[in-house]
Design a protein that fits this description.
Elements: E1 10-13, H1 20-25, E2 30-33, H2 40-50, E3 54-57, H3 64-68, E4 75-78, H4 88-93, E5 97-100, H5 106-121, H6 124-132, E6 150-154, H7 158-169, E7 173-177, E8 188-190, H8 193-199, E9 202-205, H9 219-224, E10 229-233, H10 242-251, E11 254-259, E12 279-281, H11 290-315
Helix pairs in contact: 5-7
Amino acid sequence: MNAAATDKPALVVTAADLAPEALALLQDFNIVFAGKTPTEEDVVALCRDHNPVAIIVRYSKIGAAAMDAAPALRVISKHGSGTDTIDKAAAAARGVKVVAAIGVNAAAVAEQALALLLACAKSVIGLDGRMRSGHWDKSSHKSLELGGKTIGLVGLGAIGRRMAAMAHGMDMRVIGFDPFAKDLPDYMHPVALDAIWRDADAVSLHCPLTDENRGMVNAQTLAQCKPGVILVNTARGGLVDEDALLAAVRSGHVRAAGLDSFAVEPMTAGHPFQQEPRIILSPHIGGVTSAAYINMGVAAARNVLDVLAEQSRTTSPA
């Protein structure tokens, strides 16, 4: 439910809720919630009705139409780290600052990536189903031991580094590609992107989605991978050509895939991934833990306050 109209400046949240700790920081705003599954058109309508000075983005896309509907808009703050759902060029053209809660959900997402990696390597879902059907596969099943294997990480930001530390703790060799990464620990070996496909026994994606890397996991790059490679994606669905991945899993070239993000979300009924037992699915909840929910909300709120305070200082008369 939306807050009652007041003389406070409006702030739109593209969700049905925000952590109480974040709301406490935003008490000087009229908070307008967009609901559980807002469409881009819903957000445009709210911007037209309330003319917010800020938007905190959890769901839906934010494009030029929403910005044009809110001439008072000064900042768009992402409830998380990925800003690919925000038209940053349109924001820059209109003087709207785009900020993200970088790193606050790193532990949550990295743990989800590790869970998906282990589920793939140890056939957790398949064995559970077999057990529930009355089977006992001890004499016939062989799982994959990850100790001594090479994990290739694409993206070495806060999440990738956290994943690297956990993989290193499991005695995996860690290689990674990130042209912007600096001051890496000794156990993380920076390599060219081609080496990730060529040398890794498991590949885990931890990079933002850009025009340059869209579809980076495709038929060509998968063909370069070792037979039996595992793919984990807790980043953005657009990084993966889903048809190519499905074909590679079905052929056995990819042993298994653990996916937490998809090209279209929510996933539509009848998606072919739903019928492939060696593709393990979760509904983009890597960053959704109780602690991360609070941390992301608080960081998004603080980012709003910081940007507005900075703009106030730079526009105030001397």
